[in-house]
């Protein structure tokens, strides 16, 4: 390992990459911030000749083009191929959400062109802890509390997050030891953003330990995978396509969370994706013996402890 890369950090990243991306070349999303620069240093060390980096320039700040060029120079010094992906961020209620969508769309297209097996991002244990607290505050269920997944498909891009067990401070130390000066995005300290407020909360409350919270999120993620496996089996055992619609049969002994997710997957078959509150209201109605309608679907209790899903009748138009 080079002097800038602690042996423990390199070993941990190598093990994560061997599990997540055992074959092929790896893409790195490198913004120039301390986390992504640490990912660049570590990945170049443990996967020499098998990584390629990209910096997405959202063109939202005057310095963004220069920052992308700075990352290109650092990559050249490591012998890592680098591309700058300039995107146009669409208008919308959330600039951050629009930027995220544009970023992952560009990364997905880049990975496909370059023949990369996946794109790694530098999400770490502190990010995971912040996400868990934000979702707790929103009343999320098990799926939400599982936090940031190690792997995901976003906008056609296969994303891996191999640094989820590492702390932000440790990553910053790696960059500092290399003598690099990272980009500091002022948006990360903007108190208008929920994540910024949660980050300050974590820093100010000593009994909220980011590493322990991240471990809890990982445990919840494993529990969520177990529930998903049960739902997949339930689809095989309880979901039947009929001439009149979809039947979810013999649900009395199926755990409620599995029933809820089974209903959600059945509704997707009729192109209906309810919000969390809409799904909760539908579940409450069905469990009290009443039919409920959401979107294009009507769900009714059926004999034998099941539910019948059919297309809802069109709503009557009121004319003046």
From TrEMBL:
One of its GO terms (cellular component) is cytoplasm. It catalyses: cytidine(34) in tRNA(Ile2) + L-lysine + ATP = lysidine(34) in tRNA(Ile2) + AMP + diphosphate + H(+). Its EC number is 6.3.4.19. GO terms for molecular function: ATP binding; tRNA(Ile)-lysidine synthase activity. It is an enzyme of class 6 (ligase). CDD domains: TilS_N. GO terms for biological process: tRNA modification. InterPro entries: Rossmann-like_a/b/a_fold (IPR014729), TilS/TtcA_N (IPR011063), tRNA_Ile_lys_synt (IPR012094), tRNA_Ile_lys_synt_N (IPR012795). The keyword Cytoplasm applies. It holds the Pfam family ATP_bind_3. Keywords: ATP-binding, Cytoplasm, Ligase, Nucleotide-binding, tRNA processing. It is found in: Cytoplasm. Residues 27-200 form the tRNA(Ile)-lysidine/2-thiocytidine synthase N-terminal domain. ATP binds at residues 31-36. The N-terminal region contains the highly conserved SGGXDS motif, predicted to be a P-loop motif involved in ATP binding. PANTHER family: TRNA(ILE)-LYSIDINE SYNTHASE-RELATED. Belongs to the tRNA(Ile)-lysidine synthase family. Ligates lysine onto the cytidine present at position 34 of the AUA codon-specific tRNA(Ile) that contains the anticodon CAU, in an ATP-dependent manner. Cytidine is converted to lysidine, thus changing the amino acid specificity of the tRNA from methionine to isoleucine. HAMAP family: tRNA_Ile_lys_synt (MF_01161). This is tRNA(Ile)-lysidine synthase.
């Amino acid at each position: 390992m080079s002097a800038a890369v602690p042996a423990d950090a390199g070993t941990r990243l190598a093990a994560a990459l061997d599990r997540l991306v055992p074959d092929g070349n790896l893409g790195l999303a490198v913004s120039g911030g301390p986390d992504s620069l640490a990912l660049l240093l570590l990945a170049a060390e443990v996967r020499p000749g098998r990584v390629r980096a990209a910096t997405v320039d959202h063109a939202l700040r005057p310095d963004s083009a220069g920052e992308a060029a700075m990352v290109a120079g650092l990559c050249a010094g490591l012998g890592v191929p680098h591309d700058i992906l300039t995107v146009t961020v669409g208008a919308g209620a959330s600039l951050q959400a629009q930027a995220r969508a544009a970023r992952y769309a560009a990364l997905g297209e880049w990975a496909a062109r370059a023949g990369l097996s996946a794109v790694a991002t530098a999400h770490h244990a502190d990010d995971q802890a912040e996400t868990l607290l934000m979702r707790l505050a929103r009343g999320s269920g098990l799926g939400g509390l599982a936090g940031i997944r190690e792997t995901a498909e976003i906008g056609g891009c296969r994303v891996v997050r191999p640094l989820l067990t590492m702390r932000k401070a440790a990553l910053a130390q790696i960059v500092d030891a290399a003598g690099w000066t990272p980009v500091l995005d002022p948006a990360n300290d903007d108190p208008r953003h929920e994540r910024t407020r949660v980050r300050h909360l974590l820093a100010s409350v000593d009994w909220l330990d980011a590493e322990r919270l991240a471990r809890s999120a990982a445990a919840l993620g494993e529990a969520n995978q177990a529930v998903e496996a049960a739902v997949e089996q339930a689809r095989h055992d309880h979901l039947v396509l009929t001439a009149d619609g979809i039947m979810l049969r013999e649900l009395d002994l199926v755990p409620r969370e599995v029933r809820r997710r089974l209903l959600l997957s059945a509704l997707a078959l009729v192109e209906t994706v309810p919000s969390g509150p809409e799904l909760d209201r539908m579940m409450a109605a069905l469990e009290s013996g009443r039919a409920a309608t959401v979107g294009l679907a009507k769900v009714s209790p059926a004999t034998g402890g099941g539910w019948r899903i059919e297309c809802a009748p069109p709503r009557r138009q009121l004319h003046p």
